[in-house]
Amino acid sequence: MSDYKQVAERAARAGGNVLRDWFGRIEASEKSPKDLVTQADLASQQVIQKIVMDAFPDHLFLGEEDAVGDDSGTPQANLNSDSWCWVVDPLDGTVNYVHGLQSFAVSIALMQGGQPVVGVVYDPLCEECFSAEQGQGAELNGTVLQASDCQSFEQALVVASFPPNVQRGAPEIEQFIEILHQSQALRRLGSAALNLCYLAAGRLDAYWATSPKAWDIAAGVLIAQEAGAVVSDLAGLSLDWEQPRLASAATPTLHQQLLDILASVSK
Predict the structure, then answer these.
(1) 231 close to 223: Cβ distance less than 8 angstroms
(2) Residue 71 burial class via C-beta count within 10 angstroms: exposed 0-12, middle 13-18, buried 19 and up
(3) What is the pLDDT of residue 24?
(4) Mean pLDDT of the 158-187 span
């Protein structure tokens, strides 16, 4: 295990411990409609930032809470540079967390040259630590992960993420209905990071999201890819980290079916 991955895991577990300590006793304030920020978010990020920046003081750091209220896209510009940048969501699945539901996690990625090279996602309630290094495979608590071999959409368990303010009649709603009809089953679980990790673990077969942020998915994308899953944007191209519109599936065949269905609804 590299020093980068060791530090990322230590930071993720520390942030997760903060979330577990706060769970069930937080006060929520609005960040935007249907999107919440909590004291736990901020406390988790502070712990994570101290650990990674103490270890690598020359690196950059981009946390979700740094970008709250900033729609300029400026922070994400670091993600495509040659600089080492830690990209962190200290609490992915905030709405679940606020309501006392499981399915939330800490997500930490180290990016360089526009690519995640280390990714760790930690679920503090289940004590599941998903991790990956570029070219080294993906693991869950030390056990190697492998995406499923699902080839048919009719047999696929699919998950979706919507933007916080999705409107009635939006394309996402039409896509949701179409995939609901064509897949074995469709879910909305509330954590983009965990969705990608569950894809890596073979628990899910496909996942799409029209408006995640880089900190939501950077670690999970690497974990899914290292487990053999296919990840692209909604047109089948490389992700644009400033506006990452995500389509991912366990196999190339299933990934193409997902893209075709999404494209047919968008026309």
Answers:
(1) no
(2) exposed
(3) 77
(4) 90
- Residue 127 CB-density burial (10 A; 0-12 exposed, 13-18 middle, 19+ buried): exposed
Computed on alpha carbons and rounded to an integer, the radius of gyration of the chain in Å comes to: 17
Of 130, 28, 15, give the one whose Cα is nearest residue 63: 15
Angle at 259 between CA 106 and CA 133, to 5 degrees: 35
**Tokens in use for 32?**
């935007």
pLDDT tens string 42-58? 999 999 999 999 999 99
pLDDT tens, residue by residue, 106-118: 999 999 988 999 9
Distance CA 175, CA 234 (A): 12
**Amino acid identity of 29?**
S
Burial class (CB in 10 A: 0-12, 13-18, 19+), 249: buried
What's the pLDDT tens digit per position in 72-108? Answer: 444 445 677 788 999 999 999 988 998 888 899 999 9
Distance CA 230, CA 114 (A): 17
Neighbours of 206 (CB within 10 A): 29
Q: Report residue 10 as tokens.
A: 């230590």
Confidence of residue 251 (pLDDT cuts 50, 70, 90): very high
Closest of 195, 229, 228, 40 to residue 121, by C-alpha? 195
Residue 223 three-state SS: helix
Tokens of 14: 């520390």
Rounded to 5°, angle at Cα 41 from 239 and 238: 5
Say which residue the tokens 């690497």 belong to: 222
In this structure, are strands 60-63 and 35-38 parallel, antiparallel, or unpaired?
unpaired
**Neighbour-count burial of 204, counting CB atoms closer than 10 A to its CB (0-12 exposed, 13-18 middle, 19+ buried):** buried
